[in-house]
Amino acid sequence: MSSLRDRASNLLQRRPHLPRRRPSAPSALNIAARETIARQEIEYLRRLYAKATDLLGPGKDHESMVPDTEKYRTQGREIYRRIFAEDASVTAGGSPAVTGPDGWADYVINALSGFTATQHMIGSQLVEIDELPDPRSTEGLGGHATMQSYLNALHESAPGGDIWIVRGTYFDKVRMTPGIGWQIYEMNLVNTSGELRSHQHAQESGEG
Question: pLDDT averaged over the chain?
Answer without folding.
Answer: 84
